[in-house]
């Protein structure tokens, strides 16, 4: 286990590989652990890091640090302490919101971003996701296969105050995405169509994305595409990371494999 002290609080992280940096940020249910497979794939060309946000996994549980702004400060301080410059971000719902909060403040530090099952507004989050206890969410959201149970084994460590604080931040910050649209940082939105917790963006909203934003639907996946179909997810991740810096993720449409999945 690796850990770093940031402003007096412990932050747990794991790292694999060598090369350009990529940061994996987990969602509301689980921890860094469900990124292991994706990290192993990315680490062949990248230095892959996965963090536990405050209130999750083995990082500090401190309600004063649970807002989206404080979680994005965690990311900023981590990058500074580790001497990491421009970075690729991969975030899953909460992790994507933290990534967007960071991107909005320090866009020059982000090369590209993948946002997985990320709600574009508070109304896109199912009421059950906002209010249920973690064991109920586990039964609802995961396939309960041995692989899923292992990947989500840290879910019991989640502080529900961290979930509710970030939900409140999403509800209060309705203009988060309007500001991000104008920054020009390539962003790929990935959705599992069988996710009961997060409503996919409407077709009208997808068609209104600027050229540097794109959306892909990974068929036969739900709330955890990286667990439900790791081969498919990792192929998309690899293709996205292989794009030239600054290239639009819409170039992924040139690959027949992803043409069939674009909505």
Low-pLDDT stretches: none
β-strand number: 8
Per CATH, the superfamily is Alpha/Beta hydrolase fold, catalytic domain
Which overall shape is indicated by the principal axes computed on the Cα atoms?
globular
Largest sheet: 8 strands, mixed
Radius of gyration: 17 Å
Q: What is the CATH topology descriptor? A: Rossmann fold
Mean pLDDT: 93
Content-based structural category = alpha/beta
**CATH-derived architecture:** 3-Layer(aba) Sandwich
Q: Strands of the biggest beta sheet: in what spatial order?
A: 1-2-4-3-5-6-7-8
Q: Give the total of domains.
A: 1
Number of helices: 12
**Straight-line distance between termini:** 40 Å
At the first level of CATH, the class is Alpha Beta
Order of H and E elements: EEEHEHEHEHHHHHEHEHHH
Helix content: 25-40%
Residue share in β-strands: 15-25%
Description:
By secondary structure, the chain is of the alpha/beta class. It has a single domain (2-259), classed as Rossmann fold (3-Layer(aba) Sandwich). 37% of the residues lie in helices and 18% in strands. An eight-stranded mixed β-sheet has the order 1-2-4-3-5-6-7-8, sandwiched between helices. Helix 3 links the parallel strand 5 and strand 6 (110-116). Helix 1 packs parallel to helix 11 (230-242) and helix 2 (68-81) crosses helix 3 (94-105). The radius of gyration is 17 Å and the shape is globular. 44% of the residues are buried.
């Amino acid at each position: 286990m690796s850990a770093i002290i940031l402003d007096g609080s412990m932050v747990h992280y794991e790292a694999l590989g060598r090369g350009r940096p990529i940061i994996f940020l987990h969602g509301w249910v689980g921890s860094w652990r469900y990124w292991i497979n994706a990290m192993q794939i990315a680490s062949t060309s990248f230095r892959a890091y996965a963090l536990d946000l405050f209130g999750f996994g083995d990082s500090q549980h401190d309600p004063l640090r649970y807002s989206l702004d404080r979680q994005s400060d965690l990311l900023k301080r981590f990058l500074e302490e580790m001497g990491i410059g421009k970075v690729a971000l991969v975030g899953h719902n909460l992790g994507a919101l933290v990534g967007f909060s960071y991107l909005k403040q320090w866009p020059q530090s982000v090369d590209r971003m993948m946002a997985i099952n990320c709600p574009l507004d508070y109304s896109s989050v199912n009421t059950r996701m906002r209010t249920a206890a973690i064991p109920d969410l586990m039964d609802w959201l995961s396939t309960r296969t041995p692989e899923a149970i292992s990947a989500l084994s840290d879910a019991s460590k989640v502080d529900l105050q961290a979930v509710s604080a970030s939900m409140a931040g999403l509800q209060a910050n309705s203009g988060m995405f309007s500001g991000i649209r104008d920054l020009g940082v390539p962003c790929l939105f990935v959705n599992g169509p069988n996710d009961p917790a997060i409503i996919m963006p409407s077709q009208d909203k997808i068609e209104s994305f600027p050229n540097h934003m794109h959306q892909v639907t990974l068929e036969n996946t739900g709330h955890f595409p990286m667990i439900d179909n790791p081969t498919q997810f990792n192929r998309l991740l690899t293709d996205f990371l292989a794009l030239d810096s600054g290239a639009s993720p819409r170039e992924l449409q040139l690959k027949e494999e992803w043409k069939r999945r674009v909505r």
